[in-house]
Design a protein that fits this description.
This protein has a 4-stranded mixed β-sheet. It is built from 3 helices and 4 strands. It starts with a strand and ends in a 20-residue tail after the last helix. The longest helix has 16 residues. The protein is globular and about 30 Å long.
Length: 107
Amino acid sequence: MLRIISSRDTGSQDWMLCGQLAGAWVTELHEQWMRQRRESPDLLRLLDLSDVTFIDEAGARLLREMRSQGVRFVAKGVETRHLVENLEKREKPELRRFFGQPGDRGC
């Protein structure tokens, strides 16, 4: 589940996300962002990710796209801060994959 909370100030809008930025919720955020951009292209300036508990690869791609359009991020958790810091450094998100089972010793 993902909740998008919007607050508007003089000439800008901030969004705060709560929950998981994964799966269908990535599509939901993308649609909301596109709708907002059609109505007011320069309005969204800040996306607060402090209450996001999980971001999948599609979510990271969307955040990268948003950053390239000038959106800034606030992040508090270690993983979320790391992901946000590395959005600018990498074209593709760093994947963490585990091969085998715990305790496996080789080929």
